[in-house]
Amino acid sequence: MMFKLMVALKISVVNGDLTSDDVMLFLKVEKDCPFSKWMNEKVWLNAIQLTRHGFGPGQNPLFRDLTDLLQRNDIGWRKWFDESEPENCPVPEYEDRICVLRNLGPFIRLALVRSLREDRVGIACAQFIDQQLGSKFTAPITDTIFEVYQESGARKPVLYLLSAGTDPTNMIDELAKRKKKFPTDKVSMGEGQEKVAREKNNAAFISGGWLVLQNCHLGIDYMNEVEETLMKTPEIHQDYRLWITCEITSRFPIGLLHLCIKVTQEPPAGLKASLHRTYTTMVTQETLDKVDHEKWRALLYAISFLHSIVQERRKFGPIGWCVPYEFNNSDLDASLLFLEKHLSSTIMVGTPLSWNTIQYMVAEVQYGGRITDDLDRELFITYAARWLCDEMFKASFAFNSYNSDYQYKIPEGLDMNVYRDHIETIPPVESPLIFGLHPNADITYRLKEASEMLTTIIETQPKDTNASVGKSMDEQVKDQCSDHLEKMPPDLVEEVFRAQIHRKDGLKGSNERGFKAPLNIFLFQELQRLQHIIGIVRMSLENLIMAIEGTVVMTVDLLEDSNCVFDGRVPKRWTHDASGAEISWLLPTLGGWCTGLTDRYTQLIWWLEHGRKDWKSFWMTGFTNAQGFLTGIRQEVTRQHKNQNWALDDVVTHTEVLPLEFADRAHPPEEGQNIHGLFIEGARWNRLDGRLEESEAKKLQMNMPVIYITAVEVKSKGNANAGQSYPPLNAAVYKYPRRNDRYLIFRLFLRSGDHHPHHWKLRGVCLVAQTD
């Protein structure tokens, strides 16, 4: 899709229908201020950018009055905005004008959808390609292995470029049986396998056999030899075929690449396609009849369903899995093998199924062996606990616990056709609810897909503009650098703020001052880090301006910075040091990053100059080392309780989400600190009742109230869900939406409300300090 879109846009530019500025308008976004209840700040700023842009060589300012119309026809635009398929609906105020512009119209509609409904960009791009290039470019590819074989030849090998979850070996074997070439010779490349591959290849040359070379990215040296052999061997049996599987690598010989038929296989998309593949390639009639136990076939289907669910959940990004694990058929094979042995042993001994054993072996051993993140492990255990239990054998059991037109049940039967017919009844497009996710997760998935596509296309765009149309790239970059320099906060002088901290008060009710107070040390370290970043950014911008003016040499690093500024991205040198370690915060847009720099400076300077006595709540996102802030709080509270003989090793962080009436405290707390600036994903927080509830439609993240953080002794830690029906959810707080242990700040208990914590774990509920 990405490649086709790039081709379609390039054709339109070469034809003179679009300009490079039109394309950049589609690719870039702005971000900053809110507009109304139904339109967020990002969409509003995109709308403003549309009003400033003229489309095509004639610079048609079609949307110059867009912001006025949005405010005047709020109901009409909101209706279009809330449509499930806005790309197919008439655009308020503009539909007739868009239809009249035959060449520009499709792109204008695409640009509008991209600006106001980014989650529909993928579908809108497919429609644009369809209109510009033809429907055959958007139709699904249906080339079978037989068609690939017909195109191949003795000197024309077939190269399969491997992707996650795909393996063409079974298809090759099926074709070989039909062509009387089975069994085929197979060599899995690796150290020492070149000799084996060479012998089998030479034999196949003479006999006309088929050879499958697997994982050839591990045998690149032999691939060079294969190229030479195919080119120079005078006589080759016409029935000879070479099949190569290889991961994408730049070391693959170009000559052999040109000789080969290149084939890519994406894993089947969707729950139905994944189950269909399992019950056509892995589960056979022999598998169904393998164990003489009345529960074998139901368990077989349940494990296969679980396998498809955990594979498909990856598409939802971090809200699906913190780490996108490459679960594959070997995990399913191992689970089924264990299940077969476990059932066989229960038949022999006459004991019932041990669900604890089954759940542990599947969730923590077979699949869990790949899992590296604690939250992901808890998620998989939750799936196993809900689906691998006695309930699954009841007639009322369904994998979906919500009301739906389709119930995902376990089919009953002895014949394979029963299972395949049942799989055919599954909806081709599944709801996120079957994964345990909120319907909003579908928007998350589409936004992730659109963002990755647009980012990749931006990186491929030429970094120059037509001088007759506007400023050159260098002029634009220079202007942006000058603008950012003007907005930069002043330098922080270490001697000055060190002296200020020496005079600062420390703990409440304590004589400790200056650097004896833990949070004062934390403040000093944060100021040091911020000044280091300010120095890097200021030097980078100044050097970039001088390089454009010709005063200094334009180095490779400066050229990379220039491209980033032009694209609106944050230069890597501002966020990571030479070793690749993170030194600042990560944001996708340059404007948002620079705003964050100013906000962080403002918070630290206020703390430095006014102290904590009037500071009601700290902006958690503004700290480079948020974990250090929590450690400082634990140290201070422990010292405040030294009369009770508290030890730092015996205390843990304790949190409370403040009720509405305490959110605006007149004074900071006597112990601990209040924090704000966190967002909740996967659910929303009921501020009145103080508990978790389902997310609102199309609201992916919502603000959390002020949270009180202190420290308590482990033995005195109370129940965070006292008086509630279900135990609390132990939710993670991450620095960024990209959830992994590296960005985990701390964990806190949230009241579960009307649902068991399992429900919220499957929803992917967590708190994040940043929404981008």
Automatic annotation (TrEMBL):
Species the sequence originates in: Durusdinium trenchii
Record-linked PANTHER family: DYNEIN HEAVY CHAIN 1, AXONEMAL-LIKE PROTEIN, DYNEIN HEAVY CHAIN 5, AXONEMAL
InterPro entries for this protein: AAA_lid_11, AAA_lid_11_sf, DHC, Dynein_C, Dynein_C_barrel, Dynein_heavy_D6_P-loop, P-loop_NTPase
Domain (Dynein heavy chain C-terminal): residue spans on this chain: 448-768
Gene3D superfamilies to which the protein is assigned, alphabetical: 1.20.1270.280, 3.10.490.20, P-loop containing nucleotide triphosphate hydrolases (3.40.50.300), Region D6 of dynein motor (1.10.8.720)
Stretches assigned to the Dynein heavy chain region D6 P-loop domain: 155-264
Limits of the Dynein heavy chain AAA lid domain: 296-441
Protein name (Swiss-Prot/TrEMBL): Dynein heavy chain
Domain of life: Eukaryota
Record key words, sorted: Signal
Keyword Signal: yes
Signal sequence coordinates: 1-16
